Amino acid sequence: MNEDAAKEALRAYRMAPPHTLAAKGGRAASCRDLLLQATIFGLVIAIAGFLAANLAGNLSARSIRTGFAFLDSAAGFEIGESFVAYDGHSTYAKALFVGLLNTLAVSAGGILLSTVMGAGIGLGRLSRNPLVAPLAGLYVEAIRNVPLLLQLYFWYVLLTELLPHDGTAPALLPGFYLAKSGLHFPVLGESSRAPLMTLGAGFVAATALHYFAKHRQARTGIRFPAWLALALALLPASLLLARMLATVPLDLPIQRRFGFVGGGTLTPELTALLLGLSLYNAAFIGEILRGAVRSVAPGQSEAAAALGLRTGHKLRFVVLPQALRVAVPPLASQYLNVAKNSSLAVAIGYPDLMSVGNTIVNQTGQALEVISMVMAAYLTLSLSISAFMNWYNARLEAWSTS
Amino acid sequence: MRAFAGLWRRFFGSLGNSLLTLGVLAFGVLLLPPLLRWAVIDASFTARTPLECRAAGGACWAIVHEKYRLILFGRFPYAEEWRPLAAMLLIVGLIGSACGGLIPRRALHLAGLLGAAAVALLMWGGVFGLAHVESTNWGGLPLTLILSVSGMTMAFPLAVALALGRRSRLQLVSALCIAFIELLRGVPLVSLLFMASFMLPLFMPGHVQIDELLRALIAIVLFSSAYLAEAIRGGLQGVPATQEEAARSLGLSRTRTTFLVVLPQALRSAIPGMVNVFIALFKDTSLVGIVGLMDLLLATKQALGDPAWRSFALEAYLFVAALYFGPCYFMSRYSQALEHKLGLGDA
Fold first, then answer.
1. What is the pLDDT of residues B260-289, one digit of tens each?
2. ipTM of this predicted complex?
3. How far apart are CA B32 and CA B27, in angstroms?
4. Where are the domains of chain A?
5. Distance of CA B154 to the CA centre of its chain
6. Burial of A344 by CB count in 10 Å (0-12 exposed, 13-18 middle, 19+ buried)?
7. Does the domain made of B144-297 have the CATH classification 3.40.50.1980?
8. Domain ranges of chain B
9. Distance CA B347, CA B341 (A)
10. Residue A101 and residue A108: Cα distance in Å, rounded?
11. How large is the C-alpha radius of gyration of chain A?
12. Distance (Å, rounded) from C-alpha A189 to C-alpha B209?
């Protein structure tokens, strides 16, 4: 073999994907691989067939109905909390939809709250203050090492058994009450929609202004004064809001002897679930963020300071982009955990997808259909969250390398 | 004096820092005394009745004394409670001495097998004059321990197979493994437990009966095998490709390369991750209560079904939280120490 041929062979060896490399024996090996895969395929089919045959036998032996026809019949049970109109006459399909909406709401709320709290915890652990850092550390260790379900029971008992009755509950803040019947808080009345919409419009205007100012600065170097931007965006809306609030009062919860009238309410179940989920996941998120900030080499921060960047800019343009890149993948799996953990609602009686599904299984006996649907819903939710986080991660990568 | 100035700066170095310090101090001053009064000063430790407790006004730790048998052992027959206690001590002792290196490496498998047999014997009974106890009557801390330890042990081989299968050059195998892992990681454990509880019997031949404990165990094994497989995959990715190439060029077969060269190195660096999976599993066994198994947490809830003591639920939950906290904290420390020792981690 001459030298060129040897080089060529070596190049081919290096370029080849690993599975063709392994097929040293060429045709014999790939034939064996094919045979192996065919055997495995046959085995999987055989097992699936065995299970399906058992299933069919059992279903007919126990005369369990099959199919999804039950979805259209009346559910006949009430659901305590719902974002859409629902009563006992609604169908099972509607009941599952209500459960799905509740799961989505709790997951979204839990993700939001635990991120905010987690950022606080992470910053606390990074703090140089000798009181704050150990306190945050204590929080993380205490929360992380106790099962979430136990914490949910704990909060639920605290909220339902040990709080004062409605008539005697003191106000936490003006208009905010925490009593046996849940958390009562003021909401904006019907007539305050207009200022809210103005506020929304202000937000859109502010975003547009931000892009304009950023591009102008990139082109010409002229800065747009931040205070002016904020004032321009928020002033009209806040003025209007203030005027409306002065004339149209908030819908405040009014304390009566045997309960509250008006205002918004979070039931004890939802309060306990949100509180437990957020406190639990905040500990993990705090650790993820702390690790991410720590992973940025101190030289980066020093170099930014040496270039004369202010602390805010240093964090925003140097430390945070690098830290976020490290934090996003573990953060994504933690968000998945929040969504999946919301299924513990079933244990404290909040009507999420899992618990509605469980009720339906008990009523109809159609475990196969209902549980498959519930699992498919969770799987879709998980996949969407991870798809979103992948998209965000890709955007982050593009942003920080451009 | 300089030391004092340094200390002053750490607490009150800037405006923000001073506010933080004052905030924490105010929080402590407001919160600590009432908490201390509730938990210690006004608490009753020896009360015999709930009324005595209520009179004292503080925490009622006496509930632990009153209910500890139900909390720790569930519905296990009263006279036989030494058996789950012995089983529990055996499990903890075996794991402790294995982690502490007290058992010679060669004897580890034998010790594990003997231990499992002894625990099964103690719990089930039925021979050597021990009364037979149905698994539906097992409960409390021993059940939690048995579920987590046997769940982890059974998940391990499955996880190794899944992790290797995921990297297999056979596309069908890797596709199946990826589908299995991602499916199980995408759904909550509760849904798997419900599935095992409702659907597993439907998939078995008519004459096969699976008891509730085994159903829950199957769900736990499948669930944790997916997470464990990912931990092991991380370890596999950390083994340099040159190791495999070297082993192959020495003439080792592909199987021997995997099991004698790659896997040992991969598992070694995957240990901290696997300990973390175990911690999660130990906490997650509390979910079996949702499908009716009397684990530590559900036994506590049952104990609180007693209306007389119901208002002292917080104390009972805090006690159980401490029972979970101890092993979890110890294991997480152990995992960190291992990470340090193996030269891994972010340090």
1. 999 988 888 888 888 889 999 999 999 998
2. 0.88
3. 8
4. 3-61, 92-187+250-401
5. 14
6. buried
7. no
8. 144-297
9. 11
10. 10
11. 29
12. 59
Residue bearing tokens 């259909």: A369
What is residue A183's three-state secondary structure?
Answer: strand
In chain A, the largest separation of any two C-alpha atoms, in whole Å, equals 100
Return the residue of B nearest to A142 by Cα: B325
Distance CA A233, CA B226 (A): 50
**CA–CA–CA angle A45, A48, A53 (5° rounding):** 120
What proportions of chain B, in percent to the nearest 5, are helix, strand and coil? 80, 0, 20
**Burial readout B276-289 (b: 16 or more C-beta within 10 A, e: otherwise):** ebbbbbbbbbbbbb
CA nearest B204: which of A65, A59, A46? A59
pTM of the model: 0.83
HSE-CB for B276 with a 13 A CA cutoff: 16
Q: How far apart are CA B170 and CA A31, in angstroms?
A: 12
Distance CA B187, CA B192 (A): 8
CB contact under 8 A, A33 and B183: no
CB contact under 8 A, B206 and A61: yes
Contacts of A153 in chain B (CB under 8 A): 297, 301, 313, 317
String of DSSP letters for B41-83:
IS-BSS-SSHHHHHHH-S-BTHHHHHHHHHHHHTTS-GGGTHH
B252 contact A CB<8A: no
Contact, A32 vs A40, CB < 8 A? no
**B247/B238 Cα distance (integer angstroms):** 16
Interface check A30 vs B, CB under 8 A: no
Q: Does A31 touch chain B (CB under 8 A)?
A: no
- Can you tell me the mean pLDDT for A153-161? 88
CB of B205 within 8 A of CB of B174? no
Q: How many angstroms separate the CA atoms of B220 and A17, rounded? A: 37
Give how far A139 is from chain B: nearest CA, Å: 13
CATH number of A92-187+250-401: 1.10.3720.10
Distance CA B1, CA B18 (A): 20
Measuring CA to CA, which residue among B137, B90, B72 is closest to residue B319? B72
Which alpha helices (H) appear in A190-310, and where do they start and end?
193-220, 226-247, 268-295, 298-306
Say yes or no for a CB contact (<8 Å) between A368 and B202.
Answer: yes
Segment B102-139, tens digit of pLDDT: 777 787 888 888 888 878 777 777 777 777 777 777 87
Contact between chains at A371 and B301 (C-beta distance less than 8 A): no
Given the DSSP bridges, would you call strands A264-266 and A182-185 parallel, antiparallel or unpaired? antiparallel
Q: Give the angle subtended at the CA of B195 by the CAs of B193 and B197, to the nearest 5°.
A: 70
- Chain position carrying tokens 């047999």: B117
A241-271 pLDDT, tens digit per residue, is: 676 666 655 677 777 777 777 777 888 889 9
CA atoms within 13 A on the CB side of A157: 20
Nearest-CA distance from B104 to chain A in Å?
31
Range 282-301 of A in CB contact (< 8 A) with B:
291, 294-295
Measured CA distances, A298 to B17, B53, B158, B186 (Å): 21, 55, 42, 37
* A359's tokens: 């009720």
Which residue, B131, B151, B142, B153, is CA-closest to B74? B142
